[in-house]
Amino acid sequence: MANLLKERYDALVEKWVALSDERRERLLGDFVADYVYNSEKIENEELTFATVSQIIKGDAVRDYTGDVQVLVETRNLKISWDLARARLAEDPCLSEELIQEAHGLVTMGTYKEKLLLAGERPGAFKLENYVGGPARVGIPAVEVPHAVGVLADDVNTELEAGGRHLTIAAYLHARLSEIHPFADGNGRTARLLMNGVLLAMGMPPIVIRAQDHGAYHAGLDVFHLEGDLSPFRRFLRNETLLTWEGLLD
User: Fold this and answer.
1) 137 phi and psi, to 5 degrees?
2) pLDDT digits over 127-177, tens only?
3) 3 state DSSP class of 19
4) What average pLDDT does this structure show over 35-39?
5) Where is the active site (predicted)?
């Protein structure tokens, strides 16, 4: 079963690589709304695809009566997507500064009063020992800068070596989630940077579907608890197929 999944994934990647630049850009233009919707939907169930489409296409919404913060977070995901694509395409190199900059855009204007009063800021590493996710992961705040620097170095070493594309992206996401370097917005930042690195390596980006959040967190938890990346990598292969299979022919 695992071999069949890998074969299907490898075949899809071959099709992706063979696309013309123009065709790939058109597909990525359609991808953005799906990515933004699902990445935010994991955090906010009230979001609708129609609302996301309005923000992506016209930077405005009509007849919306929900939480305004959801709209801000959604727009932030679009802005941060543009940044990650441009920066990593120009220089496919991860850095502590880029991770902070990406987080700053993802969470711009969304930190709640309690966090702000505690001195926490978008784009800055956490000051307190916050944890998150079903496994309640997160290292002490004092250890975050070093851990993020080591993570960036590890990813860059693999990027320079080439190969193992999905493994690199999966590890970046899983380890960044495990470090939990920010007071809020860690999941959205991890999903953004994972996709930015995939695109920088010439690979198809991934929509992690909101309805698959249980399997998503289960794969991350196996990595957090056992150090085994394989279940999360298999999950990402499957989500890639669900994102693109049938669209590249």
Assistant:
1) -90, 160
2) 999 988 777 889 999 999 999 999 999 999 998 888 889 999 999 999 999
3) coil
4) 96
5) 180
- What pLDDT score does 1 carry? 64
Establish whether 26 is an annotated binding residue.
no
Residue 28 parent element (H or E): helix 21-41
Give the tokens for residue 189: 């930042």
Q: Which residues contact 116 (CB under 8 A, 6 or more apart)?
A: none
Residue 209, classed as helix, strand or coil, is coil
Mean model confidence pLDDT for the chain = 93
Concerning whether 224 is annotated as a catalytic residue, the answer is no
Q: What is the reported pLDDT for 61?
A: 85
Q: Which amino acid is at 151?
A: L
Catalytic residue among 165, 173, 180, 217: 180
Residue 187, annotated as binding a ligand: yes
Token pair for 129: 């020992």
Q: Buried b vs exposed e over 190-217: b needs ≥16 C-beta within 10 Å?
A: bbbbbbbbbbbbebbbbbbbbebbebbb
**How many residues make up the chain in this entry?**
249
CA distance 103 to 138: 16
What is the CB neighbour count within 10 angstroms for residue 105? 21
**Is 191 flagged in the annotation as binding?**
yes
Three-state DSSP state, 137? strand
Give the C-alpha separation, 88 to 86, whole Å: 6
167 among annotated binding-site residues: no
